[in-house]
Design goal:
The complex is a heterotrimer of chains A (about 160), B (about 260) and C (about 280). Chain A has two helices and eight strands. Chain B is an all-alpha fold. Chain B has one domain. Helix content of chain B is about 85%, strand content about 0%. Classes of the chains: A alpha/beta (about 160), B mainly alpha (about 260), C alpha/beta (about 280). Chains A and B meet through helix 1 of A and helix 2, helix 6, helix 7 and helix 8 of B.
Chain lengths: ~160, ~260, ~280
């Protein structure tokens, strides 16, 4: 129970180090959302989202600019995806949203290609141009089907 | 046969009674923590003894565990061509499970047993009675700062364990195995979610800190007044706390995880 | 036996009164229906064999344990019935010297003696230092300030603990086996210190001991806890007592006792043949 200034200093350093570690993990690793309630919230409807999950990244030219906030079902049974983006973004209204895969077997994420219009998307707006996710099994099935049709039509 | 059943029944009743005493102790402790005057000096003292003195062991073990994860993870992932996900594997394993659990177990072994031995020895040598005769409540002066310090220190140590673990995995994956450093960190960042993972990790650490703090101080206060009693109490702390940590870990994981 | 608890240390009122106190630890009875008074400003000694409950008597006075029945009055207040806050008030009048000293082993001697002052008295650091040094000088440990309890000899530990016990100038000093574990010279020193403290501060001192010689020298009143009851009186009276139990306790016939023990051991049935069990 010897109080000494050295001891107090060490305790202070320890606490700071611990808090710094927590901050590092939260911000740099965990990616505490910098686009919380103040983010740019827009929607997009898709025929097929594949394995897209909430909190998946949204990228432009490969750079993460936000994440998937929520996924639900629209009235016409299409998938309604809510995006939360960096509020500083200025996206034209003819921006395209595509669901792509990281690698061949990797996770799904969303890629945005900004359009050319002058008008900008605001919170609550909907992206009109979408490209749904490609389901690998269907693509392979189509290939096989086309191959069969092709070889069948060659027969005399 | 009947004797065995009777013994089992007796043991169960004893266990429940012990749990009741433990709960009563926790309640008294909670009350003494909020009673003035706040013993800040004692708290700082205990944070030093439990936290600062555990730093070396935590950082070393964190780096070692991270390195092992890196090694094992790499060897497995590279078979599926997924070695780029090493960061995610190391990071998630550490953050979700290994950091809070291992930190708690290591701290139990080092600081928890020391706490029990310290309090137990004070009880045996009448120092606690001495405090009572000087109208100083031993719970308030000795026990509460120790329990509170354990609670506060655990999340900090766990976070440091994680950081050193990620670094250990980095050393193995990037420096040793030649992975791209950017991909290591980005796979880590993509995989880790603040709410699910980081927050869950800190919550676990906090709960474990509470458990170890309560168990180690309780065992200290209920030591049998012999030197063999102190040894028995210390062993009991390590065993009870370790088992509780692992059981509670399951409960929290099940309730918190998606 | 005072029925008005608010009369404190009035002239003539004994500071400590045991009124029909029975004590047991679980199934083990320690003593039954014990009644005695400790006179003010004098040294009283409680004698008894091991397990007779002498240390328990001190703990009852300090409120550390509760009796099964009866009242333990300190300055007229029944400590067994008091709440924490009132107990604090009563304990302020008591100083206790534990058998092992019970010094806080992580603090120096100075810090130990200063502890009660820092906790309860509103004094400046300089005033505290003066009082601590005064106390240490009174017990003959002026140079031990910076030492840790682990570095002290048995006699020094007791003296440091004594310094701590008197630093708040209590009116009642309780000593649990102050001579145990000490060589004869150190024991004499403690005995002299207690006498000196009693003379200088007029403190009521209650000592628990098993050493008959020193008891007869320093006590004004003696309480002997015997297995079948207690006997109280002035030392001189007790020594002349015709009561066989008292005489047997004060001048034990050691030879006879040894012979009895040997006979008992020889007569005990042999439990099992020697060999692996």
């Amino acid at each position: 129970m010897r109080r000494s200034p050295t001891r107090d200093l060490l305790v202070g350093c320890f606490v700071l180090a611990g808090l710094a570690a927590i901050a590092y993990l939260s911000l740099r690793v965990g990616g505490v959302s910098y686009t919380g309630p103040t983010g740019l919230r827009i929607f997009a409807d898709f025929d097929e989202i594949g394995g897209l999950k909430p909190r998946a990244p949204v990228v432009i030219s490969g750079v993460k600019v936000g994440e998937i906030e929520d996924i639900g079902l629209a009235d016409d049974y299409r998938a309604r995806v809510a995006l939360t983006l960096d509020p500083a973004l200025r996206l034209p209204v003819d921006t395209t949203a595509s669901i792509v895969t990281s690698g061949v077997l990797g996770d799904r994420y969303m890629s945005l290609q900004p359009g050319a219009e002058d008008d900008i998307l605001k919170s609550g707006d909907q992206i009109q141009f979408v490209e749904s996710a490609v389901i690998l099994e269907r693509m392979i099935g189509k290939l096989i089907h086309n191959a069969n049709v092709g070889s069948a039509s060659e027969k005399p | 046969m009947v004797t065995a059943i009777r013994a089992l029944g007796g043991a169960t009743v004893d266990a429940v009674a012990e749990l009741g005493r433990f709960a009563a102790f926790a309640a008294s402790l909670a009350r003494s923590i909020v009673t003035p005057p706040p013993r800040v000096g004692r708290l700082v003292d205990e944070v030093f003894k439990l936290g600062v003195l555990s730093l070396l062991i935590i950082c070393l073990c964190g780096a070692a565990v991270g390195a092992v994860l890196g090694l094992q993870g790499y060897n497995t992932l590279v078979r599926f061509g997924a070695a780029d996900s090493l960061g995610a594997v190391v990071g998630l394993s550490l953050i979700r499970e290994l950091a809070p659990v291992l930190t708690a177990l290591l701290t139990t072994g080092r600081a928890g047993s020391a706490t029990t031995a310290e309090i137990g020895t004070m009880a045996v040598t009448e120092q606690l009675d001495g405090l009572r005769m000087m109208s100083v409540d031993p719970l308030h002066y000795i026990v509460a700062p120790k329990a509170l310090a354990m609670l506060l220190v655990m999340p900090l140590l766990s976070a440091l364990f994680t950081v050193f673990g990620i670094f250990g995995g980095y050393l193995v994956g990037v420096r040793l195995m030649g992975l791209d450093p950017g991909r290591y960190m980005s796979s880590l960042q993509d995989a880790v979610d603040f709410r699910d993972d980081i927050l869950g990790s800190l919550l676990k650490a906090l709960v474990f800190g509470l458990l170890v703090g309560l168990i180690s101080t309780y065992r200290g206060m209920t030591t049998a007044p012999t030197s063999a009693g102190v040894a028995a109490a210390t062993t009991s702390t390590v065993v009870t706390a370790s088992v509780s940590i692992l059981l509670v870990d399951y409960v929290i994981t099940a309730l918190w995880g998606v | 036996m005072s029925d008005q608890p608010s009369i404190s240390s009035a002239a003539g009122a004994p500071p400590i009164v045991f009124d029909d106190v029975s004590m047991a630890f679980g199934a083990r009875r320690v003593f039954d229906h014990l009644s005695f008074r400790v006179p003010a400003g004098l040294i009283a000694v409680i004698l008894g064999g091991s397990g007779s409950g002498k240390s328990t008597a001190l703990r009852l006075i300090g409120g550390l344990v509760q009796p099964v029945s009866g009242r333990v009055l300190v300055d007229g207040e029944d400590v067994a019935r008091l709440g924490e806050r009132q107990l604090t008030r009563v304990r302020a009048k008591l100083g206790m010297l534990f058998q092992g000293g019970a010094l806080l082993d992580a603090m120096t001697v100075f810090e130990n003696v200063a502890f009660p002052l820092r906790e309860h008295a509103r004094l400046s650091a300089a005033e505290i230092a003066t009082r601590v040094r005064e106390s240490l000088a009174a017990v003959g440990l002026p140079d031990a300030e910076a030492l840790l309890p682990g570095q002290l000899s048995g006699g020094m530990v007791k003296r440091a603990a004594l310094a701590r016990a008197i630093v708040m100038r209590p009116t009642i000093l309780l000593c649990d086996e102050p001579f145990s574990g000490l060589d004869p010279i150190s024991a004499c020193r403690i005995e002299a210190l207690l006498g000196g403290i009693n003379a200088r501060f007029g403190m009521t001192i209650v000592v628990v001991s098993h050493d008959i010689a020193s008891t007869m020298r320093m006590a004004a009143r003696v309480l002997i806890l015997l297995p079948d009851g207690a006997v109280e009186g002035a030392p001189a009276d007790l020594q002349r007592s015709g009561d066989a139990r008292v005489a047997g306790f004060l001048q034990p016939d050691v030879e006879a006792a040894l012979r009895q023990e040997a006979a008992a051991v020889a007569a005990a049935p042999v439990e099992a043949a020697a060999g692996p069990w």
